[in-house]
Amino acid sequence: MGKKEKNKKDIVWFGMKLTPEEKAKIKLLAKRKGVSQKEAVMSLVNDEVIEYKVEPAPGSLLDRMQHLVGIVEDAPRDLSTNPKYMEDFGKDSLYRRRSNSSDSE
Can you tell me the distance from the alpha carbon of 62 to that of 54, in angstroms, rounded to the nearest whole number? Predict the structure, then answer.
């Protein structure tokens, strides 16, 4: 019994539509690895979603603020994910650059 036994309550159905080419790639990958198609896909998913702990350098800002990491709930993991945040970024400097270049002419 090498595989973990799972309770039926722990398993959910997940399906998706694939093109024949996508399905063939998954089948080929599984064959090359000598595993099931599900195991081939889940291996790639797990490789991409590895969680890791960052060890801050002693005395760094992260080290000094470590007690604050993760205390905000219901927020994006990365605050830069808000596209509005960067909407007008650089417009002022672009305008200044054009103004300065016309002054030098």
Answer: 10
The identity of residue 96, as a single letter, is R
How large is the C-alpha radius of gyration of the chain?
25
Q: Look at the alpha carbons of 82, 83, 87, 90 in this order and tell me if their dihedral is positive or negative.
A: positive
Contact predicate 34/28, CB 8 Å? no
What is the sign, positive or negative, of the torsion defined by CA atoms of 20, 26, 32, 36?
Answer: negative
Q: Which two tokens stand for residue 19?
A: 């093109």
pLDDT by residue (tens digit) across 43-71? 999 888 877 777 889 999 989 998 988 78
Q: For 11-42, write each residue's pLDDT tens digit.
A: 888 889 999 999 999 999 999 999 999 999 99
| Cα–Cα distance measured from residue 78 to residue 105, given in angstroms and rounded to the nearest whole number | 44
